[in-house]
Amino acid sequence: MGEQRKRLSRDERRAQLIEIGRHQVEASSFDELSTDAVADEAGISRGLLFHYFPTRRDFLVALAEDAAGELLDLTAPDESLPPLERLRAGLEAYLDYVTTRSDLYVALVRGAAGGSTGLQDVFEATRSRLAERILDGLALGGGEVDDALAFAARGYVALTEEVVVSWLRTDQRMPREELVDRLVQWALAALSSAGAPDDLLT
Amino acid sequence: MGEQRKRLSRDERRAQLIEIGRHQVEASSFDELSTDAVADEAGISRGLLFHYFPTRRDFLVALAEDAAGELLDLTAPDESLPPLERLRAGLEAYLDYVTTRSDLYVALVRGAAGGSTGLQDVFEATRSRLAERILDGLALGGGEVDDALAFAARGYVALTEEVVVSWLRTDQRMPREELVDRLVQWALAALSSAGAPDDLLT
DNA sequence: GTAGCGTGTTGAGCCTGACTCAACGAAGGC
DNA sequence: GCCTTCGTTGAGTCAGGCTCAACACGCTAC
Fold first, then answer.
1. Which of A68-77, B115-124, B141-150 is the most confident on average?
2. Which end of chain B is more exposed for a tag (fewer CB within 10 A), N or C?
């Protein structure tokens, strides 16, 4: 590729590399990503990538954090809504993200869970954040959450991820509104089974 | 290691390598497993491993299949039990396996989901098998399962995996009986939310 | 015994891809 | 116009996956 090499600022170069890395991951998966390929596509030397990311793993973690951060931003809860509406809005935003970036999402959910230790941590942390948000909607008094509720929240997040991936795989055959309704139902069922107060239906 | 090298039959050698591979995976993770290390521990040349498993990935897949097969065998449903009892028995067996081989289990659930394509398939297939078993308990007439029920079953399996991993991570603080009770509750909640007949409580 | 044969096994070496390092060169300040 | 800064280079090292032609062990036949 005879692209003319250009000198970029640290931030620009870093952003460019992450952008390219995301494409590569979308096209294949995390563990198939090659640093050489990224460098080639960026039109830089092989060595430069390691000036920004000391290790291939660091690079992958940066990619995962970038994608996860984007997901978390776009699904940030609207505190002004009552709990149930908030959950529904969160699910809608989640599905927006997922349908827009389905390749990246699947790569993240299915690829970052395993793989290197660092990736697992990012995945873990993201799932935790999502679970916390759900619990925050309940714990109005800011009380301690017991194990059962915590398990319910985490389990529900996992259920949602799995269902959404399955839904994508069936070409979204089920209407999206029905899917959201069901996911809301499952949330209520999981949480109330775990002893959550029923007034979360506010 | 001055162990005397011995000539083994194909099946013996293969079994030995898988056994060693499982140890390595337990000790670290799938993607950190090194074929050289396995060969060393087995006291064989580096080349021989590739005589049995043409590719590192093939070896990892064989390991995952071995572990997944073991899990499926040990949790095989007892057809003579009524649905609800069968589910409970399955969960008990599942927890037996998980507590016995927690390292391997976590490596499988958290490591095989991502990583190479082949590993993902094994993980996928195992989750599907577990979901099918749950649906089999319902579909007495052998009718078609609609998307909602299929999603519920798959989602529930994912929920269970996540909850169990979390439970292990909290040093099994919650009593095991309570965990089983809750998991049964969640199963009923998830399935009936998806429109399963209520007479699955037989 | 020894000649042959099937097959488990070897070990040197290739090759890809992650990673290093000393030196180069394009902006900006003086 | 020189100097300092720092993004950048590219040749090279190293680890680890993978190959291949030859070897050696156990066996049967003569």
1. A68-77
2. N
